[in-house]
Amino acid sequence: MELNGRPVTPGELGPLALYNYGHFTTMRVEDLRVRGLSLHLDRLLGDCRVVHGVELDLDRVRHLVRRAAAAAASPAVVRVTVFDPELDLARPAEKAHPEILVTTRPVPADRRPPALGVAEYERDLPEVKHSGMFGALLQRRFAQANGYDDVLFVNARSQVTEGPTWNIGFIRGGRVLWPRSDRLDGVTMRLLDEALRRAGVPSEAADVDTDELATMDAAFVTDAAAGPRPVGAIEGAGLSVDEPLLTTVRREYAALPADLL
Question: Where does the source fall among the domains of life (predicted)?
């Protein structure tokens, strides 16, 4: 864990821990290469303007990520968190001086297809990948306490949006459907959508109501750490994990080139 390329102190982490005000992106780094690197950097740049009101030095970010990834076992999950250690809780509109916290962890082991519960929940400012994760993780906790592996969010209109830390795609009739209600446009989702279109697979954003879930042939979740993973069930209703298009989804994602840091 490094702040601006040096070990971070507990005091410097205080504002992030106490106020949870910042934004981040998470990427999988393998041999110092990242799928969708430019999209991760663009996200950090745009979110920094929204959250902190200042520009972010992307060359510096890239250098710090490369430094941290080079010191970690490959592959690694690298998270870049941008926050202001001097944030004043009473005056958050004061000019910010955000710093760059880079953390690494091992890539998660392959897991069985998750069984998802469903909960009505909408993240604050869902288009920004901000560090305010209390509500999302609380809903995940509730779902796991009820015997599920994770939770799928729907909005007040019973339309599917996203998960706590992932996007979801559905397969129906040979097409891939991405819920288009308010949610984060994940990097993995964007890369995969483009790859599927190039491969000739119909892939589109659509409203997905909860009463349509029973009509889906299969579903998969996407995140940068693990890529696309099939879903085993939603609210106890099983989904196919052998749907041929799932194989295509995984193959097209695995074939995506990665950019050098």
Answer: Bacteria
**What is d(CA 105, CA 168) in angstroms, rounded to the nearest whole number?**
24
Q: Which residues pair with 160 in a beta bridge?
A: 154
State residue 109's pLDDT score. 84
pLDDT at residue 170 in the model: 98
With H, G, I as helix, E, B as strand and everything else as coil, classify residue 131. coil
As a whole number of Å, the end-to-end CA separation of the chain is 18
CA-to-CA distance for 168 and 18, rounded, in angstroms?
31
* pLDDT value of residue 52: 97
Q: How far lies 43's CA from each of 46, 53, 146, in Å?
A: 5, 14, 34
What's the pLDDT at 189? 97
Residue located via tokens 């015997």 = 147
Beta strands in 62-131 (DSSP E): 76-83, 99-106, 115-120
Neighbours of 70 (CB within 10 A): 12
Task: Tally the C-alpha atoms within 13 A of residue 224's C-alpha that lie toward its C-beta.
Answer: 27
Residue 110: the pLDDT is: 72
**Strand ranges across the sheet with 33-34:** 6-7, 2-3, 99-106, 76-83, 23-30, 33-34, 259-260
Domains contained in the chain, CATH given: 2-106 (3.30.470.10), 115-256 (3.20.10.10)
Radius of gyration from C-alpha coordinates of the chain: 19
Over residues 24-42, the pLDDT tens digits come to 999 999 999 999 999 999 9
DSSP state for residue 211 in the 8-state scheme: G
